[in-house]
Design brief:
This protein is an alpha+beta fold and 407 residues long. Helix content is 65%, strand content 11%.
Length: 407
């Protein structure tokens, strides 16, 4: 964790956290941005907490299904706070709402560990602080929102908040994952369109609170629907790349990861490399013929678990159809590839699959796999070269008697 890119991410995150704390503390002491109206702070905290509680299950599923997250619906209350509160107090609003989300939702989600939560809180604080500070410095803070000048202040606040947030989050994602594609760093066009819709609701919330506070309740319903739609969108995306029998990536999903890894290695030039394992379950037709296709599906699922448990955490396992699996192993040397391939072969050989059926219990053991190994750039410069080489090696393993690894 402390070496290379991870050390740079830690330095970056700690720096952001320090700046956020110092800026907020200094602004509180000096009263920068003008007097605070505690009632606005309390109302925004209450609205943020209520909305989070109403969508707690949806948010947990969203975070569980996605590694990187570019859409945060709590920005509705942040933008309203930017317009209605001094810089330090809107930063504190971000702390309160993020802490509530951590306690109630995120701490139980594997994609939201504590160090990422703290960094994300600092980025939200800095985004809110920057937007509110711009309004304070330009004299736009407190401008009646129903006037053209007030509308300009609202648009300026939204633009500053979004640009600062995108920059901070993109820097964190780059250092944490080494991803360089625009979609990975700042989200897709669709992600940003949803974020714009969220900020529009934030503007309406600010206007309602400033002019007719009771109308703010009409912001909550469309916000909850937007949140639910985002979950549905992610579920459809996951379903499109997931094999329903094993839970692994399907061919299209795995190939997308492989294309990204190949492009990343090409950018790095000399010294980069990845490997592919083509894995075929030996004599699978006999299992289907003997026990039936439903039992065969259960065996495939068990083999998928064995393969996934035998590779590294960052490796990508997919199903290529039938009884064939494929594994992408980024940043690996030849000797390590062979060691992992042998580990996979041994794990499958040790399987003892027990399946309960209407006719009784079926026990399937004595399984084996043949594995073909190919590594970039040894087997060729393109992804197709690697896949063809791994496939050819797989057939050599089968022709040599099965239950073995071939390169």
């Amino acid at each position: 964790m402390w070496g290379g890119a991870k050390a740079r991410w830690i330095t970056y995150a700690l720096g952001c956290e320090l700046v956020a704390v110092v800026a907020t503390g200094t602004a509180l002491v000096t009263g920068f941005g003008g007097p605070v109206r505690p009632v606005w702070f309390a109302v925004l905290v209450a609205l943020g907490v209520v909305q989070a509680e109403m969508s707690r299950r949806i948010e947990r599923l969203r975070r569980w299904m996605s590694g990187q997250m570019h859409i945060n619906v709590t920005s509705v209350w942040y933008l309203a706070g930017v317009v209605l509160l001094p810089p330090a107090w809107v930063a504190l609003l971000a702390v309160v709402l993020y802490t509530h989300l951590w306690v109630r939702v995120w701490r139980s989600v594997r994609t939201r560990p504590a160090h990422r939560f703290v960094a994300s809180t600092a980025w939200a604080m800095l985004s809110c602080f920057a937007a509110s500070s711009v309004l304070a410095v330009t004299g736009l803070h407190g401008t009646p929102l129903q006037t053209p000048r007030g509308l300009f202040a609202l648009c300026l606040a939204a633009a500053v908040f979004e640009l600062v947030n995108i920059g901070l989050v993109a820097g964190g994602i780059y250092l944490y994952t080494s991803q360089r594609s625009v979609a990975d760093l700042i989200g897709t066009w669709e992600d940003n369109a949803f974020e714009l819709a969220t900020l529009c609701l934030g503007g309406l919330a600010a206007l309602a609170l400033a002019e007719q506070p009771v109308l703010v309740v009409f912001v909550v319903a469309p916000l909850l629907l937007l949140h639910r739609y985002l979950l549905l969108k992610q579920q459809l995306q996951v379903a499109a790349v997931t094999d329903e029998k094993t839970g692994l990536l399907n061919t299209a999903g795995w190939h997308e990861y492989a294309v990204r890894e190949h492009a990343r290695v090409q950018r790095r030039g000399a010294g980069g490399g990845f490997a592919v394992l083509m894995i075929d379950l030996d004599h699978f037709k006999r299992i289907n013929d003997t026990y039936g296709h439903l039992t065969g599906d259960d065996v495939l699922a068990a083999v998928a678990v064995a393969i996934t448990g035998s590779v590294r955490k960052g490796d990508t396992v997919g199903r290529f159809g039938g009884e064939e699996f494929v594994v992408l192993l980024p940043g690996i040397g030849r000797a390590d590839v062979l060691a992992i391939a042998e580990r996979v072969r041994a794990a499958v050989g040790e399987l003892n699959v027990v399946i309960s059926t209407g006719a009784g219990t079926v026990r399937v053991s004595g399984l084996s796999v043949s594995i073909g190994v190919a590594r970039h750039p040894d087997a060729g410069p393109t992804l197709d070269d690697i896949l063809r080489s791994a496939d050819a090696a797989l057939y050599r393993a089968k022709e040599a008697g099965r239950n073995r690894v071939a390169v």
